[in-house]
Structure to design on (758 residues):
């Protein structure tokens, strides 16, 4: 299964943020999306998630049976600032989600199992989400996004503000999740990208470009990425 | 000194200009025409600068003019059998005392202070003193023409009219010096935007003195008022020394600005936190429904305080008023024909009343801030079927909430009509009850529809939709306009029933067609 973007473009007034992007992402891999501040990473995600309308272009899933449109349930989107419905408790949010999506979830588990899987402590499960800490909200958001097992998981700097233990747990989880799905992971932290991702993709001047690792060692690869981002800045 | 003055004026001007440009950008049609780089466009900048200077002049003169015209001189003219000059001085004295602590300029946590002293690290003492001097001089200059004009009209001597503006400044100086002294003593910073209980009580008492006493015939002798006002001038002079020598303006301003939430960066989140606070923490609230009904029931129950409670309160107050009206008619039967006439021809007024008590905006705001803002980021929530399902549930809820006061008002009016002598046409009673209910349903659907179609909030929970604002303003104007209409209740009621039914059908069709596409977070 591939996720294909063709000729995607988006501009805000005169600024071209995405410039005729064409790219194919393959299942089973974690893609690290790197770009300078304001390069348009979030815009790209928002376009894919149809939160904002693209000016032109298309994106679809390519399976053995052919191409098909992206459906909302294909996508999981985890934002850098976690957003959860503050008036529900963790358990209620999970119950609501399972009620709604019950039919489309392959072999659903009980809420307790999900909480255990996410290491959310029993005493926190019945607290209102507005009283959760940043990291806990993030876990809840991640949990709801992966239960549905979406084919495409978009992560917008999700680990940046987590403590080291939670960040490590999340990393492990993402690795275990990459089978049969595409994970697109945007970050500013080079080490994280190199450590977690199978492939590095740069978003620069509105275009997507894969960085070939070939036979480079870690240090050289790092240099190459920085160089690429810097170079295009001076075009 | 001059440099500080120049910088602070330029600073204030810059953000006023940018503020004007920003609001131009909010107007739906202009939005398209204006470039994004409008903050750099020279011509626009000049235009906004002219507006900004005009605004500053308005603030100096127009405000004072209206104040003296309406609150002092005009109000004084209402007490016909009292001596005008005496009332003028009496009211001016009371209001000046209120102004001396409620409008100090020195203890106003304004945004320019935050920019200048906190962000740009200007010298706090110099900045404060320069700006304070400017505002006092501005006040004196702004007042002078109007105390002269209206004071002479009220029959006061010229020399007194000439000195009055300085009394106002003197009062302010004295109050400011006292507050600074109080800070040195107790460490507490006075904030004029957060008056304490004592200050509110004083304000109420002084307002009572200003306008209540003359109504009862009690006015301070002219010599006393004038004496008190004139005494403020030497007191002010004495206070200048204290204000000038005070050394802790930095600390005072830091505390003042930290107290007030308007730390600009946090500003856009305050609406969100304020809404979060409205979520009930009652752990006994549960629901045994499923899916969207489950979500909705928990939402309604945990937001009782902002959804049901106000509706219940309004219903209670309305019921009480109707009861009072019935009692009044019983005690004074001669009023019956008047009331009967009112009910049979003033129904258009009710539209405006229903508009003001409608919970529609509160409901949609809470919906967005505490629910949709987060859930709209999940793709399952945006599936067309689910959007419409939730719309149906919410429509039912908002109609229920608004229907309670509407029913009380409808039945109350029908009862009042009956008690006040009734009408030969029984249909009038039915139309009263049904049309009030219909109007309330109309407002419910209206607000929810424009929320679903124009979803005006951004992910940062700012209200951004220009069209939404325009529709809200038009709604207001429409209701306001209806107040001017006099029409037999039967006709207006019938027309409004038909209109509401048609509008509701149309709105639902639009939502079903468009909402799956429009109900999104704004970027």
């Amino acid at each position: 299964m591939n996720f294909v973007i063709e000729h995607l473009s988006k501009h805000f007034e005169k600024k071209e943020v995405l410039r005729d992007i064409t790219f194919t992402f393959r299942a089973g891999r974690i893609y690290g999306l790197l770009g300078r501040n304001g390069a348009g990473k979030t815009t790209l995600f928002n376009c894919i998630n149809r939160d904002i309308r693209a000016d032109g272009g298309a994106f679809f899933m390519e399976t053995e049976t052919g191409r098909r449109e992206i459906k909302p349930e294909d996508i999981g989107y985890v934002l850098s600032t976690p957003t959860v419905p503050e008036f529900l408790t963790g358990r209620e949010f999970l119950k609501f989600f399972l009620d709604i999506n019950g039919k489309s979830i392959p072999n659903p588990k009980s809420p307790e199992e999900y909480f255990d899987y996410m290491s959310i402590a029993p005493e926190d499960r019945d607290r209102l989400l507005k009283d959760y800490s940043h990291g806990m909200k993030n876990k809840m958001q991640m949990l709801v996004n992966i239960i549905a097992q979406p084919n495409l998981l978009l992560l917008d700097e999700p680990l940046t503000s987590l403590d080291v233990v939670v960040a490590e747990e999340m990393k492990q989880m993402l690795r275990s999740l990459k089978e049969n799905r595409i994970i697109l992971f945007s970050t500013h932290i080079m080490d994280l990208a190199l450590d977690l991702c199978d492939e590095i993709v740069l978003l620069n001047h509105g275009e997507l470009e894969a960085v070939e690792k070939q036979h480079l060692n870690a240090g050289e690869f790092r240099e190459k990425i920085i160089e690429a981002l810097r170079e295009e800045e001076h075009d | 000194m001059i440099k500080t003055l120049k910088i602070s004026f330029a600073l204030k001007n810059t953000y006023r200009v940018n503020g004007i440009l920003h609001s131009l950008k909010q107007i739906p049609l202009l939005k398209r025409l204006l470039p994004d780089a409008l903050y750099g466009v020279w011509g626009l900048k000049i235009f906004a600068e002219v507006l900004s200077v005009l605004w500053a002049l308005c603030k100096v003169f127009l405000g004072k003019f209206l104040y003296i015209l309406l609150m002092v001189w005009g109000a004084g003219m209402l007490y016909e059998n009292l001596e005008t000059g005496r009332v003028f001085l009496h009211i001016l004295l009371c209001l000046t005392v209120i102004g001396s602590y409620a409008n100090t300029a020195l203890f106003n946590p304004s945004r320019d202070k935050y920019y200048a002293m906190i962000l740009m690290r200007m010298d706090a003492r110099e900045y404060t003193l320069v700006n304070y001097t400017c505002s006092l001089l501005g006040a004196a200059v702004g007042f002078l023409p109007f105390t002269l004009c209206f004071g002479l009209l009220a029959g006061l001597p010229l020399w007194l009219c000439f000195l009055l503006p300085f009394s106002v400044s003197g009062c302010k100086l004295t109050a400011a010096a006292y507050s600074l002294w109080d800070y040195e003593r107790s460490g507490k910073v006075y904030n004029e935007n957060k008056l304490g209980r004592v200050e509110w009580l004083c304000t109420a008492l002084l307002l009572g003195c200003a306008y209540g006493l003359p109504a009862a015939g009690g006015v301070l002798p002219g010599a006393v008022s004038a004496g008190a006002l004139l005494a403020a001038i030497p007191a002010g002079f004495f206070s200048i020394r204290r204000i000038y020598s005070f050394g802790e303006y930095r600390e005072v301003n830091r505390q003042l600005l930290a107290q007030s939430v308007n730390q600009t960066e946090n500003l856009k989140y305050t609406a969100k936190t304020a809404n979060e606070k409205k979520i009930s923490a009652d752990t006994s609230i549960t629901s045994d429904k499923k899916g969207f009904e489950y979500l909705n029931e928990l939402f309604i129950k945990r937001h009782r305080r902002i959804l049901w409670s106000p509706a219940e309160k309004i219903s209670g107050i309305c019921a009480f008023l109707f009861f009072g009206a019935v009692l009044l008619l019983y005690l004074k039967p001669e009023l019956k024909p008047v009331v009967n006439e009112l009910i049979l021809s003033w129904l258009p007024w009710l539209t405006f009343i229903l508009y003001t008590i409608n919970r529609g905006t509160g409901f949609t705001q809470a919906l967005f801030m505490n629910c949709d803002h987060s859930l709209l980021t999940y793709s399952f929530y945006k599936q067309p079927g689910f959007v419409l399902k939730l719309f149906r549930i919410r429509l039912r809820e908002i109609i229920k909430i608004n229907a309670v006061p509407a029913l009380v008002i409808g039945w109350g009016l029908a009862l009042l009509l009956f008690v006040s002598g009734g009408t030969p046409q029984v249909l009038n009673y039915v139309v009263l009850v049904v049309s009030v209910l219909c109007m309330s349903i109309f407002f419910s659907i209206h607000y929810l529809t424009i929320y679903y179609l124009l979803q005006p909030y951004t992910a940062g929970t700012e209200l951004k939709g220009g069209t939404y604002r325009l529709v809200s303003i038009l709604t207001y104007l429409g209701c306001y306009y209806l107040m001017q209409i006099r029409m037999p209740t039967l006709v207006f009621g019938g027309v409004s029933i038909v209109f509401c039914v048609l509008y509701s059908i149309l709105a639902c069709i639009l939502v079903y067609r468009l909402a799956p596409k429009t109900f999104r977070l704004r970027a």
In short: Chain B has two domains: 59-262, 291-518. The radius of gyration of chain B is 28 Å. Residues 118 and 254 of chain B are 7 Å apart (CA to CA).
